[in-house]
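testing teh design pipeline on a random one, pls ignore if ur not involved
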């Protein structure tokens, strides 16, 4: 089984081809001007590097947030389009859920920094209680009161395959971006 993993939540395009749950090709691209112009070229490159044709894909896995508003939409749009056109299953997850999956603690708080603050996910008994965004100042105050906070977690790439195989397939029309951070006009 050939799976394309798409992650555009950060300032990079991260693509992985999994073949039978093992990484076949891992590709990252950063320092580009327009992600929308680079995305399809990157998918084509990862397929060529894997010696696969687009029709060889059996499933799509995509990160649906949180992160850059535009980047998340680009990744989701490409994933949904491929799943729909190829008539293959799609699965989505937030990056915070993926990070939480690798922490063996049922009551945890996962933190993911970004330029102006931090995305937070709080779990109790391995169930998501809430997701929210804090400015750097608010995060500093918040983090001082939490003893089960996991900061600056590095994702183990084998976790991606292990996690996504536990998820149910979704209808591609139901895969949507997750925005935790409010845009400036809404916060005034």
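output:
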């Amino acid at each position: 089984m050939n799976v394309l993993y798409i992650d555009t939540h950060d300032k990079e395009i991260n693509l992985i081809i999994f073949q039978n749950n093992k990484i076949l090709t891992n590709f990252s691209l950063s320092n580009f001007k327009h992600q929308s112009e680079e995305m399809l070229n990157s998918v084509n490159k990862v397929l060529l590097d894997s010696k696969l044709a687009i029709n060889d894909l059996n499933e799509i896995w995509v990160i649906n947030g949180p992160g850059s508003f535009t980047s998340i939409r680009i990744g989701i749009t490409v994933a949904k389009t491929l799943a729909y056109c190829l008539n293959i299953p799609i699965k989505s997850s937030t990056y915070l859920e993926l990070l939480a999956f690798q922490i063996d603690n049922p009551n945890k708080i996962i933190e993911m920094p970004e330029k102006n603050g931090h995305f937070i996910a709080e779990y109790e008994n391995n169930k998501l209680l809430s997701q929210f965004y804090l400015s750097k100042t608010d995060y500093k105050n918040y983090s001082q009161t939490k003893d089960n906070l996991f900061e600056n977690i590095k994702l183990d790439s084998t976790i991606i395959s292990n996690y996504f195989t536990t998820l149910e397939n979704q209808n591609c029309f139901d895969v949507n971006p997750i925005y935790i951070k409010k845009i400036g006009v809404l916060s005034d």
